[in-house]
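Question thread 4412

I'm putting together a teaching handout and wanted feedback from people who do this every day. The idea is simple: show students a protein as raw sequence, then show them the structure tokens that encode its fold, then repeat with a second protein so they can compare. Below is the first pair exactly as I plan to print it.
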Amino acid sequence: MTEHRSPDTRFRTSLLEESDGPATNLTDNRTMGEIIATRFSRRGFLQGSLAVTAIAATVSPLALITADNARAAEGSAFTFDELEAGIDDKHHVAPGYDADVLLRWGDPLFADSPDFDPTKQSAEAQARQFGYNNDYVGYIPIDGSAEHGLLVVNHEYTNSHLMFPGIVKIVEKDGKKELEVAPLGKEQVDVEMAAHGGTVVEIRKEAGKWQVVRDGKLNRRITSNTEMQLSGPVAGNDRVKTSADPTGTKVIGTVNNCAGGVTPWGTYVMAEENIHGYFSGELPEGHKEVANYKRLAIPEGAYEWAAHYDRFDLGKEPNEPNRFGWIVEVDVNDPTSTPKKRTAMGRFKHEGAESIVAKDGRVVFYLGDDERFDYVYKFVTTGTFNPNDRAANMDLLDDGTLHVAKFAEDGSVEWLPVVFGQGPLTAENGFASQADVLIETRRAADLLGATKMDRPEDIQPNAVNGKVYVMLTNNSKRKADQVDAANPRAENAFGHIIEISEDGGDFTATKGKWEVLLKCGDPSVAEVGATFSTATTANGWFGMPDNCAVDSAGRLWVATDGQGPKATGRTDGLWAVDTEGAARATSKLFFRVPIGAEMCGPLFTPDDQTAFVAVQHPADGGEDWEPFGRPSYYEDLSTRWPDFKPDMPVRPSVVAITRQGGGKIAV
């Protein structure tokens, strides 16, 4: 079927990535907004740095913050000259820095890889080239080097309207202009499937510039057709068995890998997020997975894969979705190894899996479920990390305890174990085993009374100050009677950042304290209720925090997703955010992306001399961007970044940022 849309309507894959579907969490669990609102109404004006977060939305926060501008500026951990915010078709970095494109969609990764030809794409070529829509970026040193290592990159999803020529046209229909989008053929779907997954590629810094090592022996592409193993409590369960895999242990492929992580033992983890868009069809009448899939909005059908592959058709393979939505671990030291889906870490719309070694040697992973009104999790391994024996760590992720966060009005947080047999997670509520609990992690968290959050995305533990930073992107669907202590704003268009302090500085603790580090948005607009410090300039504020990173000095960097002329009047970018002392809640713009793009990554090398960032889906959504004001698709793009050649489409890319003349970033 040909699909008709008005020219100001976003494409389905764009909407899928924004998680803008109907609400799937219909529980009456308290929302974070309710908790924050109650907490602050009871405590009144808070003292010290917490006062920044307690300011009422009806009063300009800039008028109430007591820190002097000069004192805050002097106390900042960041000394770079700030970049000017804005909107255009190029990327920009702060003065004194270079931002070089390192890897573009379609770039060859192996000595025998074909060059990229956008008019002659094939699955075979794409499987040997850099994939599409780079999101998470990680760096694994080779021989401990900060200038020679493996770059690991997730390829979250594909935008067919930006990738393929000839599938989008504007036509006259009943006197109106509409987009006509042709269905994809099997060859194009095969290219999409090969463009998903991840990349492992050797890189080396030479004469101050990073280069791809195309004959690197560890280079690898992982795709939607890569064979994987289900491991942990769910492996072999009847609910993950299919006609192609009666054992319930062998899965083909991974999809929608958003953020991720690198483990302390040097493996690469990929987080499967918006899996619902890949499935179509209807479950057989009365099938037992109906409620389970509804909680994850399956099927959504943004992709046309089910038209060519039965495993994505619920009517033909009703258990297949249970094999997705996991954390995937890849042994980068062996390019022939089988990636493992680590089911002990839960099944939901994973955004990231950043980890830290706790005091007792156990490893803690922080996990966000990127949906409006869903939850924050952490996973604590049962075993301990052995820094002297990599092999001893390789199955740590198959045994541990998953927890979900419950935030209280008094500023405390409790981590509730998501464990079969504990509390309501029993046979009486439909769980027969831990496998059932993990397959239906969201329902288990619902029953435990976890706090409903405003799109939990990246969560980063900070080894320097012992804190944990939670990015909450936005939630415009939160109503006034749904605000709570940790989600303080109704119609939260700009998001906020929560800082957690685990009890005793122990990341394995089941209790801790929390406060709001930042409520985002334009602080000059009183009703927005943003809480940046008064030292933050007109360029320094941001909205929609998404990915984040902590450099080796313990400084926080925040990347955004969703800014634009209608929301903020600026593109997405990377901001440096002070978290300590008089400068706390001061933010400075360091890098910004071209029109239509999202800022992903970021990642710092161990010596802090390079920041890798991922520019995702540039040129998407051009109808929202003045002066462009039109739908953006292959033949009529709002930017042709990064090549700016008439015969080249826009290409998502990884950018390497270095200081001119060398040295650490932003000091």
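The second pair follows. I'd like the answer to focus on this one:
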Amino acid sequence: MQAEVLIVGGGLGGVAAALAALRAGRSVLLTEEYDWLGGQLTSQAVPPDEHSWVERFGVTASYRALRDGIREHYRRWYPLTDRARRTTALNPGAGHVSRLCHEPRVAVAVLEAMLGPYRGSGRLRVLQPYRPVAAETDGDRVTGVTVAHRHTGERLFLTAPYVLDATETGELLPLTGTEYVTGFESRADTGEPSAPEQAQPTNMQAVSVCFAVDHVDGDHTIDKPAAYDFWRAYRPPFWGDRMLSFRSPNPRTLAISERSFTPNPDDDPWLVQADQRVSPGDGNLWTFRRIAARRNFVPGSYDSDICLVNWPMLDYFEQPVIDVPDPDAQITAARELSLSVLYWLQTEAPRADGGTGFPSLRLRGDVTGTGTAATGGDVTHSGLAQAPYIRESRRIRAEYTVVEQDLSLEIRGDKGAVSYADSVGVGMYRIDLHPSTGGDNYIDVASCPFEIPLGALIPRRVENLLPAGKNIGTTHITNGSYRLHPVEWNVGEVAGLLADFCLARRVTPRAVRYTPGLLADFQNRLADSGVELRWPDIAGY
């Protein structure tokens, strides 16, 4: 099969890239390994991590259309209260991590609606569930990618003048021989204050397999997981307690903090202030990433809130899942950790009344697209998220690599982040690194609102492969800021527009960056498409 643009990976970056290329009139092949498009927002079940100004500026117009579409979907189809329906900035879950906490299936519906006209016209062909297994190259160009069906093994050979890697782990980089980096770079290479003296390529951020629960009458306790005794006793040296507890390090201070857990606290959704400048919002784990607040809906519609579990105790950092002999075995171990967390919550977690266990917690696999809500007290183990939440990818060796000194608030101060002449977007998030496979604790550094340089999207050698997700030219450190939902979308959108621009002008991405006239024309094209290139005068956090 062939098209003008081949996008391997249907996460947020992949969908944004496809939409950009399709709106430009290009034909697109889009592949995705899992059953849902949308990656971290859907199959990984992670509510959007966004900056404090997201409702006003700092994201692309198409990302804002996605957010607006999610809210409109609730208004049109869900039994919202009148108060909730009238709210412009509706937060369906009233979660503290985001101003738009919602059920992942809603995002799937909106993304599919955005892509729908192009599927109908035949200019977009989506191949699911397919994953890349091989690639062919000719010198510095990728000539084709082979993908295999996840279940049947059926193989397809796909070709296009431009190939975009929007996979969660940069799967095309080793397959195509594109030079890349993993894990920590050395301080000698990057000059970053938070980097180690020596490079640590196998030291990568934890992955997490998320899941959703509600709290309803009955005993919904799952079978005891096979690895439960191991995880129950597991005590990381920096954790301050057993990992299966409500005690863990505060990411910003590293002081040991105790979080609460109160299912269905009957709080007022209108009093939730989801602002990372004020608080990370993780004091009560139930409301931290809540994706359905029952008081936003007509009484009787929801028997319980729905809580999305993506908490510190879910982080799997025993082994990396990239460039290891059997990554599926590590993901299976991460799933076993998640089931152990659920079983611990149901049977042993301390309650405020002095008792232990919350057997009325029910795994909501129907919410994550992996199972059915229990009706008679039985819950299957298929109810975890479809895909693991991958925080860190392989990263291209790029024409420009973003380093800590470019955006650290402590280093940059009131100067703000470095402003790049080749800016192709903006983003904002603290440098937020979870515990890693090398035994490191959190690294959490205040950040300035930053720009996305085009140089970070251009491999040093390969000419027609573009990164379209977390695989751009960041370091292990700065990946912590550039890995979140709106930035991944911005990167993907730019990659799709860049492929179209290069096809139309018959130039290479490298030429666009290094030719002032071409760069100015491309940046004007981005601005016309609703991609913000600069921040107003605001301070970081």
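Top answer:
Good format. For the second protein you could add a caption like this: Residues 327-347 form the longest helix (21 residues). The mean pLDDT is 96.
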